Amino acid sequence: MKITQFSLETRPQKKIPFCTVFDICSLWEYRFCVIHSPSSAQANLASPRAGRVALRGFFAICDLWKLSSTEQMTLLGGLPKSTYHAYRKLPEVSLGRDLLERISLVMGIFKALEILFQNQEQAHQWVHQPNTAPPFHGQSALERMKGGSLLDLAAVRQSLDSQRGW
User: Fold this and answer.
1) Which residues of 40-76 are buried (b: 16+ CB within 10 A; e: fewer)?
2) Can you tell me whether residue 140 is helix, strand or coil?
3) By three-state DSSP, how is residue 103 classified?
4) Of the candidates 70, 43, 76, which has an alpha carbon nearest to the alpha carbon of residue 58?
5) For a designed S-S bond to 147, which of 49, 92, 134, 152 qualifies (C-beta 3.0 to 4.6 A apart)?
6) Residue 25: pLDDT band with limits 50, 70, 90
């Protein structure tokens, strides 16, 4: 069985001033995706260490976007306040598939915005601006994401990916 491991050296060389979030996303995408077989890759993503990295990236992005705790809990699928505050302490915790998918979508949205906008402040403000594109219908991307469904997060991600030419 061949083992494939991606390292941080394979990440794009684009310089991003707020490199800590980019490094967290890179860790999430490359370091913890050591693929032995489909089942072991899934096991790596369910590890407590991967959960901590995912939460660290999510909360760093939310801080950049200046999201309230209520908005953050909604993006995480309507977490109870006690769970949210426990997660803010960044424990090593195994996260469920739904939560991992939500965090992955938020990280993908963040990454797409960093690629699409030259100005980082513009990228961070974009989620709050009204948008007339079809998936938003005059709402901001944040309002769409706060719909609470994975499909809402996926619609924002897909819209950004299509603007990137994906």
Assistant:
1) eeeeebeeeebbbbbbbbbbbbbebbebeeebbbbbb
2) strand
3) helix
4) 76
5) 152
6) low
Note the pLDDT of residue 20: 45
Which tens digits make up the pLDDT trace of 50-82? 899 999 999 999 999 999 999 999 999 999 999
Angle at 110 between CA 151 and CA 69, to 5 degrees: 75
Backbone angles phi, psi at 4, to 5 degrees: -110, 125
- What is the secondary structure of 3-40 as a DSSP string? -B---GGGS-----SSHHHHHHHHIIIIIT--BSSHHH
Whether the pLDDT of residue 36 is over 70: the answer is no
CA angle 135, 101, 85 (to 5 degrees): 105
Question: CB 23: neighbour CB atoms within 10 A?
Answer: 16
- Give the rounded distance of the alpha carbon of 13 from its chain centre: 20
Task: Name the nearest CA neighbour of 50 among 28, 30, 34, 35.
Answer: 28
**How far is the C-alpha of 146 from the C-alpha of 104, rounded, in Å?**
16
